[in-house]
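Justification of computing resources. Each target in the renewal requires a structure prediction run like the one illustrated here; the chain below, 503 residues long, is used simply to show the kind of job we budget for.
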Amino acid sequence: MTSVVRPDQRVRPSEAVPSPAAPPSAARPPAPAPSRRPATALVAALLGFTVITVDVSAVNIALPGIRADLHGGMTGLQWVVDAYTLMFAALMISAGALADRAGARRAYAWGTALFALASLACALAPGIGWLIAARVAQGAAAAVVMPASLALIRQAYDDPRRRARAIALWTVGGSVAMAAGPVLGGVLSETVGWRAVFLLNLPVGALVLLLLARVAPSPRRPSPLDMPGQLTAVLALAGLAYAVIEGGHAGWTHPAVLAAVAVTVAAGFAFHAAEKRHRAPMVPLPLLRRREVGVSLAVGFAVNAGFYGVVFLLGLYCQELLGMSGITTGLMFVPLAVLITSTNLVSPRLAERVGRRPVIVTGQLILAVAMFALLPLAADTPLWLVLLLLAPTGVGGALAVPALTALLLDAVPGHRAGTASGLLNSLRQTGGALSVALFGALIGGGDGGSGFAVPGMRQGLVVVGVTLLVTAALSRWLLPRTETAKPPARRRTASPGAGTGPR
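Resulting structure tokens:
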């Protein structure tokens, strides 16, 4: 969950390009200039970013209730999570270009309205298929909301210091939402029902739209959209997720699974060809040849695979094996969110002292240890031990990501900072989605009606742990050896926007 707006694409009002359909200014009386209202823009941006973050973590806790009501099985639950995440990941790279073309305020309003309508469709879902389709729409809307929310803040604050403080509040809002999401999901699903988790988004969306009416219109600028690249990326990710999810249940040689693998490979080649030929590709291929970029993307993928896989896993483990209520399960994730927030604050300072590479490597090793530490979990594990073993999961990823983001943005030209940030966000979300697919496929063979196979859980933890060890080794060998990070005063002007990093 992270910043994807291209810092180099900030547009001053004098640079705005009028819409081709707009009549000349002489044909209509000039409208009074609206107030900038920076605080209003900040609150609107913070609310939207918060609600899309809450939705991810809250739904994880509501999954048992969804299965009991809609009878979707483990495969259905995986798609409820991954339909949102995959669309979020696939559309995130080009969503910044949409915000440029439409203007941040307009794009943010569109995304918020679509997110609210999709949430209503989720709440009214009569079956698991309807819910999954509505989650696809939610993910598409969230991909627009996230970059537009940050662009709205950048537009509202001209002073770099005030803008940096506003962005810091935006980032902290995401951490608070991560802590509140599981609690809200547990409370609502236990007291009102899982549908209330989605209905909660409606009043928040309405409030955001009311606030946006008091914010100055955003400038627009022409920005090319890479539709061939976007479509092939969505197809490749969807095919890959389908193959992993269905392969774990139907068997890896099932015709549908083999067909999904073939679609994934074909879409991957088509994506490569499209990016090679497009005059403004959403993923410039030469960028991927940079060693720092390739390693950073692999690390981001592995870190999110570990974190989001564990959140999905433990949400089901606590409720189905330990018999905990949704409220207690949600509260269990609050210490994790506190650890993430505090470690995020420490990581940049630590990187300035010892260098980014050691911080990135150490974060991955801690997260890998967390995967192996969870292996002894069983149906009779006491809650205090679960909480203790869960702690390194929050520390490891939160330690690595800020330093990883800063290193990536320093490794690319200034005009590619937004593209690099979008790529990192997309790969991180993809890692989380595929991890959910993997864990769901492995734990779905439980006996005794629990639907939770402990041996499958352990297999998944080993796979993710080994993946993190591999990316940690790649980071140690291939990333540049830098004793200290660049001082903040010497960073390029794009760094205030980049500092938030992907969540």
